[in-house]
Amino acid sequence: MDSNPSTAESIYVSDAVTTTAKILVVGHFAVGKTTLIGSLSEIRPLRTEEKMTQASALVDDLQGVPDKVTTTVALDFGRLTLSDELVLYLFGTPGQQRFMQLWEDMARGALGALLLVDPSRLAETFPVIDLVERYGLEYAIAVNTFDTTHAYEEAEIREALDLLPDTPVVYCDARDRASSAQALISLVRHLLARAA
Amino acid sequence: MTAGEEEPVAGDFVRAYVITGGRRLPSSDELSLHTLVTVGPDKELPLGASPEVRAIWDLLSGGYLAVAEVAAHLELPVGVARLLLTDLFEQGLLLRRAAPPRAQSVDRGIIERVLHGLESLYG
Ligand SMILES: Nc1nc2c(ncn2[C@@H]2O[C@H](COP(=O)(O)OP(=O)(O)OP(=O)(O)O)[C@@H](O)[C@H]2O)c(=O)[nH]1
Ligand SMILES: [Mg+2]
């Protein structure tokens, strides 16, 4: 933004940081993943891409390139410094079933997943729940209220999504930092209980 | 933010192939997306480094960044950035920090620290 050296330095993680943790922000298309990450991140949320499917197969078989196309998926992520030694990364992960390779990569070493839900499109959340469960990720449901303010009762959502009784369900506004942080805290409390 | 996040990228693949010399992309076991990396003290950029490696070097000369951040800042696909970083790491030129455990199992101590951090910031 400007040439102030402290601004230039701020893209880096402090030398004192010894540990990084990763939490996934998952959910179906346009549910608010990028918005929530942007609300919480201390850096401008970053975006990168991952090649999906047969990355190595394609490279092994370059002659086949004209026939082969693959998919690129945008990943966005943000960063929160939680203490002098600890940084948390939040990775937005699309909920489509076919991005298995990406999920494997994302799930490895993740503490758990905040699963965003749009209460007016509950059915779109089923495949996302299947994915987090397949990868053994603990999760909490964050209902992104989209201005509908609690028109959907928690019990209704629990039943529709067939949640376990101890799976947290919290309401949040992904555009609001404090509200997004509370959703994340509910998830991490749950992770701690499950890690006992 | 556009809806169309998927598109054919054969052209990008050729580019990735050239950058990596056609080698297989390393698995995320080596350097995961949130592993921090930086240039080792008193290390020098290898002679004949590609423009991409040079760009990584310049970026990481400033401090620690996560693997995913390197990819994003340099607009490289994550797999390609990871491969180039793995090369530099294996040559002893990079430092790595906070490598997460390989196992999928999660350390309770880290969860506690994350919770404590979030609560003290937002509690
Ligand atoms: N009114 C309202 N709009 C929201 C809220 N959260 C997100 N949006 C909007 O919904 C749209 C989709 O949000 P994104 O954050 O891009 O959703 P996403 O899950 O990252 O979407 P994809 O990456 O495309 O799957 C954007 O236009 C947001 O501004 C909310 O709480 N209330
Ligand atoms: Mg998004």
Automatic annotation (TrEMBL), chain A:
Gene Ontology terms, MF aspect: GTP binding; hydrolase activity
Origin superkingdom: Bacteria
One Pfam family, short name: ATP_bind_1
Hydrolase as UniProt keyword: yes
Keywords: GTP-binding, Hydrolase, Nucleotide-binding
Gene3D superfamilies: P-loop containing nucleotide triphosphate hydrolases (3.40.50.300)
InterPro entries: Gliding_Motility_GTPase (IPR052705), Gpn (IPR004130), P-loop_NTPase (IPR027417)
Entry keyword annotation includes Nucleotide-binding: yes
PANTHER family the UniProt entry points to: ATP/GTP-BINDING PROTEIN-RELATED, GLIDING MOTILITY PROTEIN MGLA
Family: Belongs to the GPN-loop GTPase family.
Name by which UniProt lists this protein: ATP/GTP-binding protein
Taxonomic classification: Bacteria, Bacillati, Actinomycetota, Actinomycetes, Kitasatosporales
TrEMBL record, chain B:
Name of this chain's protein: DUF742 domain-containing protein
Family annotation (PANTHER family): DUF742 DOMAIN-CONTAINING PROTEIN
